[in-house]
Amino acid sequence: MLDIQKIRADFPILSQTVNGKPLVYFDNGATSQKPQVVIDAEIKYYNEINANIHRGVHTLSQLATDAYEVARGKVKDHINAKFAHEVLFTSGTTHGINLVANGFASILKPGDEVVVSSLEHHSNIVPWQMLCEKTGAVLKVIPINDNGELIIAEFDKLLSDKTKIVTVNHISNALGIINPIKYMIDKAHSVGAAVLIDGAQAVPHLKPDVQELDCDFYAFSGHKMCGPTGTGILYGKEEWLNKLPPYQGGGEMIKEVTFEKTTYADLPHKFEAGTPNIAGGIVLGTAIDYLNSVGFENIQAYEHELLEHATKRLSEIEGIRIYGTGENKASVVSFNIDGIHPYDVGSIIDKLGIAVRTGHHCAQPIMNFFCIPGTIRASFSFYNTKEEIDAMVDAVKKAQTMLS
Ligand code: C6P
Fold first, then answer.
1. Residues 312 and 240 placed together within one structural domain of the fold
2. Ligand 1 binding pocket includes 102 (Cβ within 6 Å)
3. Distances from the Cα of 84 to the Cαs of 29, 77, 106, 169, 246, in angstroms?
């Protein structure tokens, strides 16, 4: 059982008022709020050990390097990677996916196939389209049904020996649907394809076990899991990371440089050119510690209660349509009110202190499927409450009255 009021006290921003009303922050899918320990850890880094890493013999550089590598180890343990060098620091999910898509340019031949799903964020569509344009590979798309779930029978049919990589999100950002990734990973492997999982929306809610999943790549962002912006992780199986060429050239990713030939550093440095977000990486480790202290089992159970409460309360509103009605869902409710543009609802409820995201959520193909311009998305975190959900429902009802 979580003591929500105690948890809320960890997040200074939550006690703010916005537009004269208590802040109700339901835009956790876009970015999560940060607990004081995370904010303090960022300050502590700059106050005490700020230096460039992997370079200096001086004490501060060594302290910063050690702290950065400790954070890498925490991520390794958190996602149960086999080796710390399978954990690459990135600037976020987008960076991680682009790194892999770019690497596959040296693997794909014309006519090879890349399988994505209709539920993807643009970050897990556009890099693969660019890759296909570059290589002559063909993009295949898994369709969804009216509940917003992937049609797995169609996924099965798309797979063949031409499939070289399947790339799918763990949880949809726009609808909150949780995809059956374990099945999909095993099935893709049965035709020899690699699998990338976009875990951006999963890591705030659950602890992925990459060895159990047996995925080849798992990308996520730190800022959605109580960590700083500009941080992220790409997990890649050692054999794949050894096979892929470096993404960017620069300092720290080399063994030796001459004008005739450059040789590359071992993992993970081969993929970490230039000075990284050192403070961010270290503090991502603090964020992971914080989430583990709350406990993912507790988080999941409580967020499920929030999801059920929100779905029930919102369903009271006449003319509401909820998108993403599949069984297996994270704590996200995406909806529209008949005859009202989502942006108008979002703007009015913002005046009442309620922060939701409106629009296409960087997932235009989903909006096209439902023939809508966008939705109102309320995405909940473990620091939200049922009372806040009630305040949102009242605010949406008020907006409906004003706009009809
Ligand atoms: N989704 C949302 O409001 P970055 O921007 O690199 O940290 O994450 C990109 C990304 C990739 N995949 C999924 C499933 C995502 O949800 C996101 C980010 C935010 O839904 C901002 S657009």
1. no
2. no
3. 28, 8, 25, 23, 18
Q: Are 167 and 150 in contact (CB under 8 A)?
A: no
Report CA(29)–ligand 1 centroid distance (Å).
8
Tokens of 139: 């993009």
Write down the catalytic residue from 132, 215, 226, 362. 362
pLDDT score of 1:
84
Please indicate, yes or no, whether residues 287 and 310 belong to a single structural domain of this protein: no
Summarize pLDDT for 258-286 with one digit per residue, the tens: 999 999 999 999 999 999 999 999 999 99
Q: How far is the CA of 63 from the centre of ligand 1 (A)?
A: 32
User: Phi and psi (nearest 5°) for 97?
Assistant: -65, -40
Number of H helices, E strands in the chain: 14, 17
Q: What CATH number is associated with residue 325? A: 3.90.1150.10
Residues 6+ apart with CB under 8 A from 297: none
279 is in which domain, residue-wise?
A: 39-292
The predicted structure's pLDDT at residue 85: 98
Smallest Cα–Cα separation from 194: which of 213, 216, 210, 179? 216
- The residue nearest atom 19 of ligand 1, judged by CA position, is 30
Q: How many domains does the chain have?
A: 2
136 phi, psi to nearest 5 deg: 80, 10
Ligand 1, from 91, 117, 123: best to mutate by most atoms within 8 Å of Cβ?
A: 123
Tens digit of pLDDT for each residue in 107-158?
A: 999 999 999 999 999 999 999 999 999 999 999 999 999 999 999 999 999 9
Please report the atom of ligand 1 found closest to the CA of residue 362. 22
Question: Which residue, of 249, 264, 292, is where some domain finishes?
Answer: 292
- 91 Cβ inside 6 Å of ligand 1: no
197-208 pLDDT, tens digit per residue, is: 999 999 999 999
Last residue of a domain, one of 254, 277, 292: 292
Ligand 1 in contact with 30 (CB < 6 A)? yes
How many angstroms separate the alpha carbon of residue 195 from the centre of ligand 1? 19
3-state secondary structure of 315: helix
Global pTM exceeds 0.85: yes
pLDDT tens column, 54-108: 988 999 999 999 999 999 999 999 999 999 999 999 999 999 999 999 999 999 9
Summarised one tens digit per residue, pLDDT across range 314-362 is 999 999 999 999 999 999 999 999 999 999 999 999 999 999 999 999 9
Q: Decide whether any atom of ligand 1 lies within 6 Å of the 164 Cβ.
A: no
Annotated catalytic residue 362: yes
For residue 221, the one-letter residue type is S
